[in-house]
C-alpha cells in the first residue's frame, strides 16, 4: 500500500527538481551575459537604487514619498492620495498624477498597484536588466515559484511518508523498506534546495549579483553621512529599506496597506 504514496512523492520531486535545474541553467546564462556589462553602463540614481533593492513596488513608494515631501501629493493616513500640484517634474511623476485620475484623488493602494505595472516603472527594470544589474522580472518571479515548488515537494514527501507509516500497519523491521524508498525523493529535493542556495537564490532578488555589489556600495555612503542634502539621504534610505525608515509616523501609516 505504501507504494501508492511513494509514486506521487517521486513524481512531484522529480518534476519540481527538473524545473529548478532548468532555472539554474537560465540563471547561469544570465550571469554570463551580465558579466559582460560593467555597472558603469547605466546610471544609478535613486529610482534605480529603489528597483534593485525592492523592485517596482519600492520605486513607487519612493516616488510617492518624494512627491509628498515636495508638496505635490498629499498622502493621508486613511489610505487616500490627493494631487496637490498637477505639474509633474519627471516622467514618473507625470505618470503618477495621470494614474490618480481627473478627480485628483484615489486610494493609495490602488495607485501603488497600478503604478507597479506602469511602463515607466517597468522601463527602469528593463534598463537595469539590460545592463546586467537587475534580474529580469520574469526570471525573478519564475525562480521564486520553482523554489517554492521544490519545497512543497519535500513537504509532500514527508506527509506521504507519515501517512504510509500510519496506515500501513508496519511493525519492527517492516518500516525499513518504505523508509529506504522514501529517502530517494527526500534526498533529491533537499539536495536540490541546497544547490539552489548557492546557484539560484541570488536570482530570487531584484538585483543580480553585480547589482547587489552596487547596492553594497550605496549603503556605506549613506551610513557615513557623506550626503550634504538631508532630503537625498532620507530618500536613499527609503530606496534601500522602504517606508519603514521614515521619521514621519503619519507618512508611514499612509503607505501601509489599507483594507478597502
Please give the structural blueprint:
Elements: H1 2-34, H2 46-69, E1 73-75, E2 80-83, H3 91-100, E3 105-107, H4 108-116, H5 119-130, H6 137-168, H7 176-199, H8 209-223, H9 230-241, H10 249-254
Antiparallel strand pairs: 1-2, 2-3
Helix pairs in contact: 1-6, 1-7, 2-4, 2-5, 2-9, 6-7
Strand order of the biggest β-sheet? 1-2-3
Give the beta-strand count.
3
Put simply, the count of helices is: 10
Dominant shape: elongated
Question: Which blocks of ≥5 consecutive residues have pLDDT under 50?
Answer: 220-227
The gyration radius over C-alpha positions equals: 24 Å
Structural class of the secondary elements? mainly alpha
**Residue share in β-strands:** under 5%
The whole-number mean of residue pLDDT values reads: 85
Major beta sheet summary: 3 strands, antiparallel
Describe the structure.
This protein is mostly helical and 260 residues long. The chain is 68% helix and 4% strand. It has helices at residues 2-34, 46-69, 91-100, 108-116, 119-130, 137-168, 176-199, 209-223, 230-241, 249-254; strands at 73-75, 80-83, 105-107. It has a 3-stranded antiparallel beta sheet. The longest helix is centred in the first third of the chain and has 33 residues, at 2-34.
